[in-house]
Structure formats: C-alpha cells, structure tokens
Amino acid sequence: MQKILLLAAALTVISSLSTTTVAEDNTVLLTKTFSDSQASYSVHIDNGSIQVLPSKTQTAHFNVYLKPICVEKQSSYDEIPNVNLKSACQLNKENFTIQTSKVDGKTLLTLNQQVYIEQNWQVFLPVQASLDIRARQGKADIQVVSGDLDVGIVSGDVNLITSPTQYKNMKIIALAGNIYSQSKHVSSTDYNPNMVSLSNHIDIPGSGDANIKVIVATGDINVKESEYY
Questions:
Q1: pTM of the model
Q2: Least enclosed by CB within 10 Å: which of 43, 89, 182, 225?
C-alpha cells in the first residue's frame, strides 16, 4: 500500500491558479512507429487521455493529438511559463516532438514539454508487445492487450476490455473510487456491471500469459470481458 501511495505522490504536480479552457480546434498530430513487435513501451502523460487498441500488423504505432489549454490571466501578476504557443490558443507544431528514451529496458515515450497541453494518445499495440501507462490526470480506454500491461493514474477513470485467455493474472486497485467488473472469476456481486465491487482491490485469474495491473488513486475502473478474443 505504501508503494501505491508513493505513486500518487510522485506523479502529482502543483496546478496553475489561472483559469484554463481547452481549445476545440487547432489540433496538432504527432506520430511514432516501431517495428519491434515484442518490445516493451511506456507512455507518460501529464494531462489527457490514452486509447489502446490491438495492432493489425507487427508494428507498434503511436498517435498523439495535442490541443492547447488556453490560459486566462487572473491578474497582471500571474506568470505563465513559455509553452511554445503562437498566441493565447494556438500551438506551434514545430516546437513539439515525441521524445523517446530507454528506461529499464523499455522504450519511454513522452512529449518534449507538457505545460498547458491536453494530449490524447492513440496506441496500436502488437500482440506480443507490453505497455506501461503513467498519467497525472486523464482517462484510459484499453481494449484486449495480449502482452503485460501496467497502468498507474493519479486522477482519472480506466475502461478495460480483456479476455481471460489473454492474461494470467489481473490486479485491479482503486484507492478512492469504484471497481465495476463483469468477470465471472470474482463474486456474483462484482459480475453485475451495474453493481460496485465490495472491495477496492481485486485479483482475477486467467488462462493466458500476460500480467495486468491497473492502479487508480482517484477514479473508477470498469473491467469488461470480451468473448471474441
């Protein structure tokens, strides 16, 4: 439990006191593609969302859509850091890149700067690839991954669609939130998608090879089983 609490503390940053809104247009798209179908990847997000889908090829493909978070100064004393904006609500695409590095044998993907940016990731993952997700604030929608999956979110919801034939063990933890599960491997109360799990920590066995772990500090986790994988 101490490690879980440290995760929330480590990812939490001080929020700006300025009033902010997300621009509806002026979206910037960045992409990265990797040919190693068995690699391990890690995506770190400050504010935004991530959608994970099975890749139809042996390549891992990462799209990230960027939107500016428009900042309205509350007083002349507010200091807004340089966030590479053309104007109050326009991004300069040339100043943004997806940075990659090797950390603990995994390919880490992050934006080169994340201040006042909403980032929405779309990941297409090969069958044998594994993925770590770390987010301070955001939402994750994950559909049927066959490799190892490790998700840690400070504030946000997780929707996970998987199959017992894909994973060996699935650990789900919601520190301050609800767990909704349709798995037949937990209690009948948890199987009802309209009912809340009686525990904030459940372990679900499967017949596959992958290890799945999802931890949310504040937010809900919804686990559904798919019969088509």
A1: 0.79
A2: 182
